[in-house]
Design a protein that fits this description.
With 157 residues, the chain is an alpha/beta fold. The chain has one domain (47-156): P-loop containing nucleotide triphosphate hydrolases (Rossmann fold, 3-Layer(aba) Sandwich), CATH 3.40.50.300. 39% of the residues lie in helices and 18% in strands. Strands 1-5-4-2-3 form a five-stranded parallel beta sheet, sandwiched between helices. Helix 4 (85-90) links the parallel strand 2 (73-77) and strand 3 (98-101). The longest helix is centred in the middle third of the chain and has 16 residues, at 51-66. The radius of gyration is 23 Å and the shape is globular. InterPro entries: Cell_div_suppressor_SulA, P-loop_NTPase.
Length: 157
C-alpha cells in the first residue's frame, strides 16, 4: 500500500486573517474620532417581534435614560398603548423624570417631537415615528441640536 501525499492549501482562521490585516487605518480613525467625543443628535432603534419581547428589550434602555444625571426630562412622544404607567413602574423607570406626551388636534407626533427637542427641557426625546423619511430625520436632528438634546426614534416592526 502506497500513501500519496497531496499538498493542501493552508487556510487561515478568521482570527488570523483579521490579524494579518494592517491596523494603521483602524487606529488612525479611532484617534481622529474617539468614541463619545460628541454624542449624535439622532439615533434610531428598530425592534421586531412580539410586543412584550420588544418592551423587554426597550426597558433597560429607557431605565438608563430615566436615571440620567442631566436634570432635564426624558420625554416619550406618543408611545405605543402597551407602554403604560404600570409598565414604566414595573420596568423600574424613574417616573418622576419622565414626561409622556400625546399630540393634540392637528399636531402630528413628528411636530410634537420637534417642538420638545427644540425647547431643550428634555435631555432625550423618544419617539415612535414610522416611517421616518430623510426630511423628517433632518428636522429631528436640527431640533435636537437647537435644544441640546438627543432624539431617539424607536421603530417597532
Amino acid at each position: 500500500m502506497q500513501l500519496v501525499h497531496t499538498p493542501q492549501h493552508t487556510q487561515l482562521s478568521l482570527f488570523e486573517a483579521f490579524m494579518a490585516q494592517p491596523l494603521a487605518p483602524i487606529l488612525k480613525e479611532t484617534v481622529e474620532a474617539p468614541w463619545g467625543s460628541e454624542p449624535e443628535a439622532f439615533s434610531e432603534l428598530s425592534l421586531r417581534g412580539a410586543a412584550g419581547s420588544c418592551l423587554s428589550l426597550l426597558a433597560p434602555i429607557l431605565r438608563e435614560l430615566s436615571e440620567e444625571q442631566d436634570a432635564r426630562w426624558l420625554t416619550l412622544i406618543a408611545p405605543p398603548a402597551s407602554l403604560t404607567q404600570a409598565w414604566l413602574r414595573d420596568a423600574g423607570l424613574n417616573r418622576e423624570r419622565i414626561l409622556l406626551l400625546q399630540p393634540r388636534g392637528a399636531q402630528s407626533a413628528q411636530q410634537l417631537t420637534c417642538e420638545a427637542l427644540r425647547l431643550g427641557r428634555s435631555h432625550t426625546v423618544v419617539s415612535w415615528l414610522n416611517p421616518l423619511n430623510a426630511t423628517a430625520k433632518q428636522q429631528l436632528i436640527s431640533a435636537a441640536r437647537t435644544g441640546d438634546a438627543q432624539s431617539l426614534n424607536i421603530r417597532l416592526g
